[in-house]
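ATP-binding cassette domain-containing protein (Streptomyces humicola), 316 aa
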Amino acid sequence: MGHRRLEVDGVSKRYGETVALDAMTFDVHAGEIFGFVGSNGAGKTTTMRIALGVLAADAGEVRWDGAPVTHRTRNRIGYMPEERGLYPRMRAGEQLEYLARLHGLSRSEASRATRQWTERLGVASRIGDEVQKLSLGNQQRVQLAAALVHDPEILVLDEPFSGLDPVAVDVMSQVLRDKADAGVPVIFSSHQLELVERLCDRVGIVRSGAMVACGAVGELRSGGAERILVDAPQAPPGWAAGLPGVTVVGDATGPTLLELAPGADDQAVLRAALATGPVREFARRLPSLTDLFRHVVSNEHTEHTEHVEDTGGTAA
């Protein structure tokens, strides 16, 4: 099972003049959590719908385990749509059993799986309630149960964490981790970048329908410009402004955050700081995923994919 992966290869989609996807390419390996981030309208949902076969691509292909995704494969995908797709007037438990049977489980298997997932997700006491009577957080939990109830081989989740309280986020995060550990490729989109940073093995940043950066979170972060946090309490304002290759990112009050151009001498920065008096802290700071995202999304000139590693796909 080690080599199984979901591949999105050169997928394009247009709506009239609007390019929704432009040769979108990436893959998600078995046992990996892949975070899909981008502004609204960047193409995340379109990509997911094409992967599911809900939408046809104009060009390119989606493969699972080396073969094009077919109706049979799609039956093995657990999907959580962004616009939640449960029947509002159906009881939560009946809804889950119905969906499980739709995916080929027997009545007793469907009932057992429904019990297992509603207990795991903390909504077992709600299975007799109509979906529309549940709180938003509990509707989310039932929606996740709907994606899991047929024991899928692949999980595709569109904004699964939106509207969840911190406890539910922890429960859902643990479920996704457990699924990945069991060898399932998990892909989810999210606007909560600190969550993506904490949870994902790899991240793809999408802009205007194309993948603009893709790689392990640590590699993407360390691939950014080097930053140094300097706490020199007696340093006058602007003490670092004239240093070669150094940009002051922030020093409103307290420690100064500096960005170093490639090849800039951090020891020269340290000497300049020591010349002002004591230095309490002098530490390298990696940019957060939020910083990277801002940089990539606002920087319209980086049109080429920065592939930090060989993901088996070609750069878009």
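Residues 225-285 form one domain. The chain has ten helices and 15 strands. ok done for today
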